[in-house]
Design a protein that fits this description.
This protein has 292 residues and is mainly alpha-helical. The protein is built from 14 helices and two strands. α6 packs antiparallel against α12 (228-238), α10 (200-215) runs antiparallel to α11 and α10 crosses α13. The two termini are 22 Å apart.
């Protein structure tokens, strides 16, 4: 029997209550139709979107790199400000740390750890988390992207030379102890030499370690993951690529990036609850249930 307005409806029942009841239009979206629409929007595999995000982030970085690079005199002056601050806080340990490893074979290992951190360990960790725990993966991915976006203005406004370029007698051990020359023409065209503050090597390493520890089940592997951050802190200082102050600011801005992720996630939560309620409201209603 058609409902008022010519649209088909579902009769609620007979009697006074049934006559007074408003018929439910079956033209309203049903759960099955919503699920079909949702599946239609997800025809592109999820990993393709993740690759697209990575490519887009890289392109944005390439565009922003030319804006963020500062002059060497300005970067050198800022590096000396960092040194003065560390001296006042008794944190100027970079020279002593490098001297302790300078003639040790362990320094060669640290050189390659530094090179592998962002180019191998970071993407490999994201791939592993994507397979182990999608929720933890998204948290780490969003944290890293937010942290990177927060760091770009800092690099542009406060370019700072690393210890190896600050005229402090600290050696560029990566260039002298590995095939890659950090001061070479090709390398300087790919990396911002004066993006020392904050140290995303250290900040990202702590974030990766925490995320992996949350996803892994083996206690030994979890403790090993948590050590990635401290190992990276030692690495960047011993190789002359960052001051301790750079590492502290790197961890701080990564924590801020995680905070941005939480704010965005909290903003999406009410909408998800409304969507879930709408799906539940579209379930078929039995006449006996409606009159109960």
């Amino acid at each position: 029997m058609p409902a008022r307005g010519g649209r088909p409806g579902v009769p609620i029942g007979r009697g006074s209550r049934g006559r007074e009841a408003v018929r439910i239009a079956v033209s309203a979206p049903t759960a099955s139709s919503l699920f079909r629409a949702e599946s239609g929007r997800r025809r592109v595999p999820a990993f393709v979107w993740e690759i697209a995000i990575a490519v887009a982030a890289y392109l944005v970085y390439e565009a922003a790199r030319f804006v963020a690079v500062g002059s060497y005199p300005t970067a050198l002056a800022h590096a000396h400000q960092v040194v003065a601050l560390e001296q006042s806080l008794h944190l100027d340990v970079e020279g002593g740390v490098q001297d302790a490893f300078l003639h040790s074979p362990l320094l060669t290992v640290l050189n390659y750890v530094y090179l592998a951190a962002q180019n191998l360990v970071l993407p490999a960790s994201l791939v592993l988390l994507y397979r182990l725990n999608r929720t933890t993966y998204r948290t780490l991915r969003n944290t890293l992207l937010a942290t990177w976006l927060l760091s770009l203005p800092v690099y542009a406004l406060y370019p700072a030379a690393p210890p190896r370029l600050a005229g402090l007698g600290i050696v560029d051990t990566v260039s002298t102890g590995s095939p890659l020359k950090l001061e070479g023409g090709t390398t300087t065209s790919l990396f911002n030499q004066f993006a020392a503050v904050p140290s995303l090597h250290v900040g990202f390493a702590f974030a990766i370690g925490i995320a992996l520890a949350a996803a892994l089940r083996n206690p030994i592997l979890r403790y090993a993951a948590l050590m990635w951050g401290p190992v990276m802190l030692l690495t960047v200082v011993a190789t002359g690529n960052h001051f301790v102050f750079d590492a502290i600011t790197g961890v701080a801005i990564t924590a801020a990036g995680y905070g941005v992720h939480r704010l965005i996630a909290a903003g999406r939560l009410p909408r998800r609850r409304v969507d879930a309620y709408a799906l539940g409201a579209c379930r078929p209603i039995e006449p006996s249930t409606a009159l109960a």
